[in-house]
Amino acid sequence: MTIDEQTQRDAIARAGDRVRALSLSLGRKPTACVVTFGCQMNARDSEKLAGILEESGFSIIDDEDADFLIYNTCTVRENADKRLFGRLGAVGARKKEKPWSRLAVCGCMMQEELHVDRLKKSYPFVDLIFGTHNLFTFPSLLDAVLAPENAGNMIVDVWDRTDRILEHLPSKRKYPFKSGVNIMFGCDNFCTYCIVPYVRGRERSRRSADILDEVRRLADDGVREVMLLGQNVNSYGKNVPAGEEAAYGSFPELLAGVAEIPGIRRVRFMTSHPKDLSDELVETIRSHDNIARHLHLPLQSGSDRILKRMNRGYDSAGYLALCERIKARVPDIALTTDIIIGFPGETPEDVDATIDVVRSVRFRNAFTFLYSRRSGTPAAGFADQVPKETAQEGFDRLLRTVQEIAAEETKKQEGSVGEVLVESVNENDARLVTGRLSDNQLVHFPGDETLIGQFVRVKLCEAKGFYYIGQRVQGSDAVH
Ligand code: SF4
Question: Which of 70, 266, 327, 463 is deepest in the core (most CB within 10 A)?
Fold first, then answer.
C-alpha cells in the first residue's frame, strides 16, 4: 500500500469515528446520497464516493434528503450546469432544518473557477467543494467536513492538475454483475469545442497489472461484464514515465488480457478516438468472442472543413475507410457515434456532408447534440457562431436520417437469436425484463427479476426502432 493509500485509509477510520458519534446523537444510522450528472467516468467516480461514505459508516440511499448529500457534476454542455443550480436551491431550505447535515459538490464543474465563485457567493450553505484531480483525497475531505470545528465553514480544495492515481479506493457498485473500470484519466486531444481536457487534465494511464488485478477481483465478486473507461482509450499506455512502458503495454494488449480473465463473459470499452484506433485493436476484437460487438466511434462532423476547425485529427475519407476496415474484419459489429450540429461556421452544406457519412456508415445509433458554447474552449471564441434556428434545422434533418437508418439496421436482426445480459425489470411493464445484446442493443422480453445478472438466449421477435421485443428461447439455460 502506498503512503497516499495509507493516508486515505486512516482518514476513512477517523471519519468513521465521527459518523459513529453522529449516529449516537441521531439515534439512527446516518444516511448519504451521491447524485451523478454526466458520463460513465463520473458514474464510476460516484461509485468510489459511495464506497468511501459506506465504509465510513453511512448507509447509502437514493434520496437527496440524506444527512450527507454530494453532487458529482458535469460541465460538458450548458444544461448540465443549470441542472445543479436548479437542485441547490431546494437543498438550502432543507439544510436549515437539519444543521447536522452536510452538502458537498465535486466533479468537472468544480474545476471551473467561475462556478466555484458562484457557489461561494450565492450558495454559502455548501460545506465542501473539490474537483476531479483530487477525488482520491475524499476520505481526508470527508473527515474534515464532519469535524464539528468546521461546521458552517465552506471547505474548498480544487487542484489544477495531478499526475497521481490512487489504487484500492473502496467502491460501491450500482450493479453486482457489471462494472466500469477506469483504465486512464484525462485527455490530450484538445478538440476545440471540448471542455474535458481543461477539467479532467492530462492523460495518465493506470498500470496494466493494477487494472487486470481489479478485473480479477471483480470477477471473483460476481461481475460478468466490464466496461473499460477512458476519455480516449486508444491512447492508453502513451505518455507514461520513460522506462516504464512495459508496466502499461498497449490498449489492444490490455483489452486481450481483460477478455482472457476467467469469469468475464463480456468486455466493453469507451470512448475511442478515430485517429488513434489501430488495426491491432480490430484484430483483438475479432479474435475474442467475449469482446462486445459494439464500437462507439465519435464522428462529430462529416465536413472536412469543420473537422479541421474542431481539431479532430482525421477527415471524412479517413473515417469512412476506418469503418470499412472494421466492418470487413468484424462483420457483426454495431457502430455508434456522437455528432455535433451547429459548430461555429457550419453551413447547411456541412450538415449535408455529415448526413452523407451517416448514410455511408449506417450507424446502429447516433447521439446527436446541438453545439454548446463552453467558456474556456477555443471554439467559444470563434466569431461565426451559428444561430440557434439554423442549427436546429440542421439537427432535425440529421436526426430523421439517423433514426431512419437505425430502424432499418435494427430490423435486419429481427427473427434471429441473441445472448442478452439482463439488467433490470422493465420500467414501464413489470412483466418484462430489459437487457443488452453484445452489440449494445436493448431487448425487452417476458421474465422476472430472477433473471437479472444472467445471460439469456432470446429470440428477437420484433424490431422497434432502437430496440427489440423478444422471447426467451425455450429450454435455454440462464447463465451467470
Ligand atoms: S477526445 Fe476530444 S471530445 Fe473527447 S474528451 Fe478529448 S478533447 Fe473532448
Answer: 70
